[in-house]
Each structure stands twice: as C-alpha cells, then as structure tokens.
Amino acid sequence: MDSHRPKATASVVAERLDDIAKLDEASFYETHRTHDYSRTIGLSLVLGFVFMMLVDQVSQRKSSKSSENERNITATLGLVVHAAADGVALGAAATTSHQDVEIIVFLAIMLHKAPAAFGLVSFLLHDKVERKQIRKHLGIFSLSAPLLTLLTYFGIGQEQKETLDSVNATGIAMLFSAGTFLYVATVHVLPELMQSGHSSNHHRKAQYDYHMLEESREPAVPSELLSSNKGLRYSELIIMIFGTLLPLVITFGHQH
C-alpha cells in the first residue's frame, strides 16, 4: 500500500500543476484579448476621424462655391458618412446570430438619429440655407443608413458573415461612425455655433470696420489666390495624420 502512495501523490501534483498551467493560459488569453479590444477601439475611432478629415479636405479643394456652402456641404457629408457607418453596423449585426446585439444596435441607432436630424436642420437653418436645399440634405441623410444596411446585409456571403461575426464588425463599424461624428462636431458644428453665440452686433461692426481699415492699407489680392487657400496644405495634412496615428503605432509596439 505504501508503494502506491508516491505514485498517487505524484499524480495529484501533476494534476494540480496542469490546472495551474490552464489557469495561467486562460488569464494570459483574457489579458491579451483585453489589450486587443483596447487597440481596436482606439484604432476604429481614429480611422473614422482621419477618414472624415480627408473627405473634408478633398471636398474643400474641389468645391468652387462660397465658404458657407462648403461648410454646409461638409457638415451634411459628415453626418451622411456617420449614418452610412451606422447602416453598415446594423447590416453586420443582422448577419450575425446574436439577436440581442442586433436589437441593441437598432435601438441605439434609432435613438440618436432623431437628434442628429434635428441638429442638422438647425445648423442649416442657422446658416440661412434655403428650405428646399435643407429638405434635400435631410433626405440624403435619412436614406444613407437604410441603403447601407440593405447593401451590407445582402451584399455579403456566408463566409463573410462568419468572418464579420468573429472580428466583431458591428462594434468596429459603430466606433468608426463615432469617429466621423466626432470630427464633424469638433471641427465644423461646435466652433460655428460658439462663434455665433458669443458675438454681438457691436462686436461684428467693430470687427468689420477694422477689416475695412486693414484692407485699405494692403494691396488687393486676386480672388484666384484667395480661393486657392482652402483647407490644409498637403504637408500639413500629412503631418496631422502622422501625428494622429503615431500614438497607435507606439502602443502597438509597446504591447508586442
């Protein structure tokens, strides 16, 4: 009987060590997965912001209309891209087997679409856009999410559905959408509203008189040169994108 005790003890120790190894492996996997989620969240938000910035700069360079029209088009375009990304998220959620996720995504999109539409119309009315043009902007914004939802749902096959389910494409699409909305809010909508809210008629008149005085002292600048200075220069745009993505690159290198 005593000869079997060392074997039994060794077997118990081996089982314990195996359990500890499994726990360590599970803990390492959970930590690694948490890091992956953190990187995915940051990367999706930044890419949405950078994408909307590129769209904004390209539209400013190609537009030959007034600066107010450019700002209106950019605000609408930003919200359209935001709504389109929401549509992709909803379509991706509909292709998965997680019905609870699909319901949550649908409710989240529906709850913030009404405030977004109200904000867009208010912004366009504030800039004194014609009501006919406002209806066109609102119609394009309203159609973008349903169209992209249908295209996403019917445009992917079974293999792509399994891939989307594995990489959590719904969350990535919604984070990308949040990045586009963040750009529109911080670069166009909020500064314009704040500038309008803090300015008075007397201040505008004084500023107008000052600009008239400065223009009388300086030689006239051709309108072609003024129209060409729209948006950031290419070097500034590249530096800004590089500075935006640099923390992500450093984070990737540090975690590896």
TrEMBL record:
Listed transmembrane segments: 37-55, 103-125, 137-156, 168-190, 237-254
Taxonomic superkingdom: Eukaryota
Single GO molecular function: metal ion transmembrane transporter activity
Entry membrane topology: Multi-pass membrane protein
One record GO biological process: zinc ion transport
Pfam families: Zip (PF02535)
Entry keyword set: Golgi apparatus, Membrane, Transmembrane, Transmembrane helix
Location of the protein in the cell: Endomembrane system; Golgi apparatus membrane
GO CC annotation: Golgi membrane
Name of this protein: Uncharacterized protein, isoform B
Main localisation: membrane
